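One such shown below:

_____
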Amino acid sequence: MPGAGQTQTQSLSPEDRSPEELRAWLRLVRTPRLGGKPLLAMIERWGSAQAVIDAGASGWQACGVPRETWNAQCAVDDARIEQDLAWCRQPQCGLLSVLDPRYPARLRQIAQAPPALFWRGDPDLLCLPQLAVVGSRNATPQGLEIARGFAAELCRRGLVVTSGLALGVDGAAHRGALDVQGLTLAVCATGLDRVYPAAHRALARDIGQHGLLVSEFAPGTPPRPEHFPRRNRILSGLSLGVLVVEAARESGSLITARLAGEQGREVFAVPGSIHNVMARGCHRLIRQGAKLVEQVDDILEEIGDQVGAWLRTPGAPSPSPSDPPVSGLHQAVLDALGDQPRAVDELVERVGISVEALNTALLELELEGRVGGASGGRVMRLAGPGARGKP
């Protein structure tokens, strides 16, 4: 994928570029039989979605994409593209491509990374450290309580709780995060103008207002069985690890756990009674090497070295209501700075974003009086707004 030293046009999101570029992305996303891997290869070769289309049938065939797929692109309904464009231009909605500096580095590293994600809410959450919480759709009352409690405590410690908006454990995890005004992210298996299951319409609305929903599927896409494994690879790919609360032997949550292992993520499982059929999937995971989890600290022992800058100690005070609001990305940069000056390349590694995105965030934070320059070209955190000039 294009690196930090390439041209500015290759680091802007579709929303920030011309309408023609956004239309081109929407057309490519909607092209049948055009998988993520061929599209990523063409984007890397030509640098923009419009350039991919301008390459023509011969250019596509040179990349191993058959003529039939080019013809399918040509047949995409222009009226549908205009409807997609209108959806993306709604407040707190958009399309984020792999060329966008906000595209999460962790997700970019997985096999079959999605070339673009539709989003609704606050896209800055994508760059924050996440833990996926998944489990059975038919969870027991105890399992729902465990999922909700773990999610709430993970948020109190500074993590984003990610799940799949499904019934059962997924919904309990999202609710647990919202209970404590924490951050939660839902990866959906439909277009974001739809909610599946319908029973979670209110939950999806709350997540859109206080967190983030993402999907690789264009608006209007209904739920289909093959969409859920595709959703699961994104869910695990965004996260540092996956916590399975309850799962039967053939649960889809085990697919997410397997994908997490293949992607190099940590896998955690909550044990249960030998008489509870919903615990058997978790027990299988533990036998296969997943870490047995009884409390949140069991998770933080494994991932703490990756998220130390974000972690909060139990009982740490929340920001004062009088403090000006800080976006998710800005807070991540402030947390990564900690209480000592740091070099830009160190911040890039800690936050997991591109140099361009970090420099933009640092400029905005400097204008707010939250950060300033230090010796040796480093950056330091200031006491807060209005703190310019303080030691």
About this structure: Residues 8-92 form one domain.
